[in-house]
UniProtKB/TrEMBL annotation:
Gene Ontology molecular function, alphabetical: hydrolase activity
Protein name: Alpha/beta hydrolase
Keywords attached to this entry: Hydrolase
Recorded superkingdom: Bacteria
Source organism of this protein record: Jiangella rhizosphaerae
């Protein structure tokens, strides 16, 4: 396996990426796939896990940190801003499509958890992505996401905190942060027991900064991750299970997407699909079959 860093620009910020390939022959053109992970994460978490598996199967897999996250530039830091992430995906797709060691004929995209909804929006916005796949895809709107945060009262409370944090940023550029993950802490981005984010052997890796800009609640809680589907016609794959978030949304997406759709139903919880061998292997088998059929030879 060969990995090496790359850098590209998105809206004036320099973004840090990593290429994953089997072998070190840069003259061999391979099919290319972009891979991104969940909200509040960096490339070294679930994205690199899937990239390594796809590289072993002959794909050039590229991961990257979004603007304001990880090794990438951009301010404010740790801000979950869907519109910014969507623009980054468009920029990343154009960059990877320009690489001389990737095969012409189309770029694939794998979005794990929340980045799947951003990728659909990026495709609708014109990102040069020829084939899409969502793994345990998180696609929400305000109505569906509210129960995670105590209903509409919890949403209003978080929007109020976010508005105060945004005012502080406008006043003197202070970025008010809360933990990205802390079990039992109502102010944290994720407050349920989630071993992936607590365990250094899983997602609590040194490169991950466990912080979220509190202003993130404003765009996160009001984002519509389902509405872009009607403008997307590329082939799509959804790997999901009853134990993943919003299982009923997969059928809603299937009915709205304009291109061919395949759904592969497995077993396991949401975070099992981030890194557990059984779920990752199950997903990668489906990804390989999907991209072999939908990326031009």
């Amino acid at each position: 396996m060969t990995t090496f860093p790359v850098v590209f620009e998105s809206s004036g910020a320099l973004l840090a990426g990593r290429v994953h390939r089997a072998g070190d022959d840069l003259l061999e053109r391979q099919p290319a796939v972009l891979v991104t992970g969940s909200w509040l994460t960096v490339k070294e978490q679930m994205a690199d896990r899937y990239a390594a598996e796809l590289a072993a199967r002959g794909y050039t897999a590229v991961t990257f940190d979004f603007t304001g996250w990880g090794e990438s530039g951009g301010e404010p830091r740790q801000f979950e801003l869907p519109s910014r992430k969507i623009a980054d995906i468009v920029a990343a797709a154009r960059f990877v499509s320009s690489l001389s060691f990737v095969r012409p004929g189309g770029l694939g995209y794998v979005g794990v958890c929340a980045s799947a909804q951003y990728a659909l929006a990026a495709i609708a916005a014109g990102a040069p992505i020829a084939s899409f796949a969502g793994i345990a895809g998180w696609f929400h709107d305000t109505e569906s996401v509210a129960p995670f945060y105590g209903g509409l009262d919890g949403v209003r409370d978080r929007l109020g905190r976010a508005a105060a944090a945004l005012a502080a940023f406008h006043r003197d550029r202070t970025v008010v942060t809360v933990p990205a993950y802390e079990a039992g802490n109502d102010r944290a981005g994720m407050f349920l027991e989630l071993d992936y984010y607590a365990n250094p052997a899983r997602g609590a890796v040194p490169s991950w900064r466990n912080e979220m800009a509190e202003a993130s609640w404003l765009p996160w809680l009001t984002f519509d991750g389902l509405s872009a589907a009607g403008a997307v016609s590329v082939p799509a794959l959804f790997v999901h299970s009853d134990g993943c978030v919003f299982p009923s949304h997969i059928e809603r997406l299937r009915s709205r997407l304009r291109g061919p759709v395949e759904v592969v139903w497995g077993e396991g919880t949401q975070i099992d699909f981030y890194d557990q061998p059984a779920q990752v292997s199950f997903a990668v088998e489906a990804l390989d079959a999907h991209f072999a059929a939908t990326l031009q030879a």
